[in-house]
Amino acid sequence: MKQKEFLIYTMLILILLIAFFLDTGKTCREIGALNKQKEKIKNSLILKEYTREYKRMHGLHYNHSKIFKEKQFKEWSEKARKLRNSYNDEYIEILKQN
Asked: Which domain holds residue 22?
């Protein structure tokens, strides 16, 4: 009896999930937070540059930890986040026009 209840419960969940995805027309990947972040980065010059530099600096710290210490990486990361948050894409467009 428990196995039958489990199968019914599983089928109900599948039906609900199918109905949800049919209503939105999106897949799990499109709904996921990671893809939303990637899309946000793709559309923003500032976030794209920040992400590129962050990956570069993290790689430098990870591969050369004797040269580029954890403390230095955290200091750089904090400064970079402050700069990233202080500018927006509209400001970049204004600079391009001038």
From this structure: 1-31
